[in-house]
Structure prediction request, 285 residues.
Amino acid sequence: RVAYVNGAYVRHADAAVHIEDRGYQLADAIYEVWAMSDGRLCDPEGHFARLERSLGELSIDMPMSRAALTTVLKETVRRNHIRDGLVYLQVSRGVAPRDHAFPAEPVPPAVVVTVKRVDPQAAEARATAGVGVITTPENRWGRCDIKTVGLLPNVLAKQAAREAGSAEAWFIDADGLVTEGASSNAWIVTADGVLVTRDTTANILRGVTRATLLEVARTENLRIEERPFSLEEARRAREAFFTGAGALLMPVVAIDGQPVGEGRPGPVASRLRRLYIEEARAAAI
Ligand code: PLP
Prediction:
């Protein structure tokens, strides 16, 4: 296996950053994840745009142009001989003696790329069966729109899900509203057939898969609402699912152990998953 670290392709086992990297010490770093289909990057523009936005919010310069970064991402994929999986990019502010404030003299950002294989058949089997989610109180900071590596609440939520035999955890805010998943955006098809996902003016990550899926859904004869929905509404929904570069679109068949709808993947989720995958493959670079 091969990773990209600060300008070089190195053996994954030898890949390392400095102990005073600010990403390591302070989570002063952001990341992006692209799904990869047949060796190509899915939703490239959406992820680049969000990368630039996350970096901008942290006042870190883009470490290289989009074109150069595309080359690095694709070259890392190529050297790993992986066709289907996930490409992970992390950019930290760089290495400096520990101090909360930015280094007075700017340092070069640290750039790391790794690749992970995903078995498309196993993913398809999971989607055909559907998965369960648990719920957990929303306890994250107020800037979930920044894709920072500061993910401890998400880590603890996902671990709780795993221990409960579930695939994902949905955060529930103080008003009983579903914000999003630990690593995905949440959706329902309401009892009267409306496709609902939370609007991105809220404190959630602006999922790239979410945005593309909305475009796909708009070509279908579906009523769509971007608005908050409550856990109560989700429990009464016909269908539920979540989206993200990792899961693509994953039907949810149970919330906290209670079946959603008929307790199996619904027709809207199944159709949208197929349409999303077709669209993402067609637009991949
Ligand atoms: N929400 C959170 C908290 C995430 O970590 C992710 C992705 O990892 C998403 C939503 C989905 O975003 P995307 O579709 O861009 O992968």
User: Anything to note?
Assistant: The mean pLDDT is 97. Residues 33, 154, 180, 183-185, 205, 207-210, 243-245 surround pyridoxal-5'-phosphate (CB under 6 Å). The CA atoms of residues 85 and 269 lie 22 Å apart. The two ends are 22 Å apart (CA to CA).
